[in-house]
Amino acid sequence: MLVLFTDTDTDLTPAAAKEYGYHLISMPYAIDGENIYPYEDFDEFDAHAFYDKLRSGVLPTTSAISTQRYIDYFEPFLKNGDDILYVHFSRTMTATFDNMDKAIQELKTKYPDRTVYTIDTKGITLMSLIIVKAIGDLYKQGKSIEEIMEWSKTEIGHYACYFFADDLKFFRRSGRVSGLAGTMGTLLGIRPIIYMNEEGKMVSVGKEKGRIKAMERLVSYVEELGDDVKNHPVLIGNADAPEIAEEIGAMLKEKFGDDLMIEYISVNPTAGSHCGPDTVGVGFRSKARSL
Amino acid sequence: MTKTIDGLMYLNMLRGGAGNLGANRTAVNDLNVFPIPDGDTGDNMYMTINAGASKTAESPLLGEVAMHAAREMLLGARGNSGVILSRIFAGIGKGLESEQKADTARFIYALQQGVKEAYRAVSTPVEGTILTVYREAVEYATRRNADSFEALFDDLLTELAASLERTPDLLDVLKNAGVVDSGGAGFVYIAEGMKAALAGLEFGAEAAGTAHPKSVNLDAFTEDSELEYGYCTEFLLRLQRSKIDIDGFDLNAFIGWLNSVGDSVVAFREGTIVKGHVHTMKPGDILNHCQQYGEFLTTKIENMTLQHNEAHGSTGFKPKNSKPKKPYGIVTVAAGEGLKEIFTSLGVDAVVDGGQCMNPSAQDMLDAYEAVGAETIYVFPNNSNIVMTAEQAAEMTQNTDIRIIKTKTVGEGYAAISMFDITVGDTDAVTAYLNEIIEGVVTGIVSVASRDVEGAVEVVKGDYIGFVGDDIYVDEPTPEQAMLGLCEKLRAGSYDVMLILAGENADAEKAAQMYETLKQQYRRTEIIMLQGDQPIYDYIMILE
Predict the structure, then answer these.
(1) Assigned CATH for A157-285
(2) Complex ipTM, two decimals?
(3) How far is A126 from chain B (nearest CA, A)?
(4) pLDDT tens profile B454-489
(5) Which end of chain A offers a freer environment for a tag, N or C, measured as fewer CB atoms within 10 Å?
């Protein structure tokens, strides 16, 4: 049979993973040189405690997981005669997937009849989660792997994610956002608007002064870019900023109606190490990734 | 009775004018409409005219002196009154340009050119200012048509004083403050000083201020330097009978030729001597050409890169180098280390030192433009009294598209620069975008009142006033109370963002307390407080 995998960078929690039948690969972050594996080193993610540490000046790092760790995750299932579908976060953001490639290659020689399928969600956190969930739904509906792979070819570009950070120092340090206007040394009340493009890269598309204008801009993307928004879930992610997330939720409901299917998501600590506290974003079904 | 004046006399008059204004500048400074210290008109005008009085080389040739002095004043101009003053003298210079001497008729003509040039400098001339005072005096002198310079200056002074007295009738702000126009008053002192010089009082350049002997830094032009400014080439040429028909020598054709191989051309003929001045990349060509008419009495050729650096060395900016120009740069004006750092961190290429109490000169702005060396430069003057200086400096640059975003406060400058985005479109689009940003910005300021003022808000000297532009909203015993009161009056809670810049006089502890109070009071507004260290203003508040 087919076994589903995803990683913790997609924001899927163990409880939700269980619901869909996903197995979780834990993507680590490190504080003071000590690696912490989400949901392996702790059971529940305390977002407030984690992001408060960042607010007080702690700057975590993240690292790729090893080839061996991938083998350890996958091998028991292949040995058991199962195939694997790994729906993962963006390849362009990390070196992790080079290790994954090596692991899959090794496993292929060992288990030539088995297959590890992979789908790149071309994103991280919300962007990935909305796709992980859609694939989970297809899986639950009994779609074949061929049908799921075919779906992914056309549909991954039909989800979009826009967000803004509160303090750009985290993104500056990680260097993972392109197009941040060169004049932005400090970020005092100014919020660059960032989205994830078709290649799974984070790109800045301008900036807004003040949180309120930035929130309005996110809502305007859902309006202009959204496709059948009312019949798909809208994810609002936040790095320990639930009030802002709820305010965006209220703004969206005002536009689309109270029955809009909104899910509030807590941004996982590994991705959160790059975007920093108080980042908020929205993920939704869309015509394309950008206008 | 003086029927004609030459270059030496005119320069002496300028020095006399500068000297008399210098001695009385405090009186001019005190003609201040708004009850906080600002870019003092007396100082600005004095520094402007003194640039001409002290830096102009002595020469009997009136046109040469008048043009040289005008150029120095254009560069030295500070503040709006200084810019207008420099344009008056630029007009006079143009009126005298081709003259070795001038009689009163010619001088009156030159004064009229001064009126034209000054009005041209201001996009919307305001009557009741130095413009009116000077224009009416020139109109009066034109009607009187005196035939001696003593009588001419008597005429000018008569009407200058009368016109100055009328300025409060033309401008309510003057009437309300109970003062006459400060720029007009400054011009009266200048005219008085010029007249004193005419009466035979000798004024040295030193009395007028800051002439220093030139010291040329030879390292400013190295083996890798590129010739950017060419050579300042001057000569005295004795026309030779053996070479040409001296009477048939055509000076205008000669000037035309000089203009075809260089610029800044000045040439005069006195008898058989031709004096020439030209900036050129190839001085040899000039000398060879001239020799077909005669032989040189003296020549002087100076590499202007050395002159340039010598003249500009003190501003702290690196001289322009030969690297390819970058596509765009940003220049702004600010006082206070914190504020300068904030602007630098936002990506500003050059922060010109200056602001409310200390207006930079056109030369300071020009130096910044040149130091940035970009194809397009966006300039944020951050003070209404610096806008014209920035524009004047822009007119004096070449090959650079200078876009002045007329920010009137540091708040507007911050708002626009922090949202600077070159990807908006072409230069026009970026300019329009930046202008749009500053429209929605309110800059509230808290500062100590320097005198009592009657009005809707009773201002008591020593109290702290909160104001926006010319409108005073509150008068309170402490700067923090003035801030809180001002926030209330301005409905701070209806804005998305409030940025507070604490000045050098602000008490850190009280500022922190006030910050907490504001955050409690205006929960919806995002409030940020930074240390601006600006002088004069205890707090600057930017509401967007």
Answers:
(1) 3.30.1180.10
(2) 0.71
(3) 26
(4) 888 889 999 999 999 889 999 999 999 999 999 999
(5) N
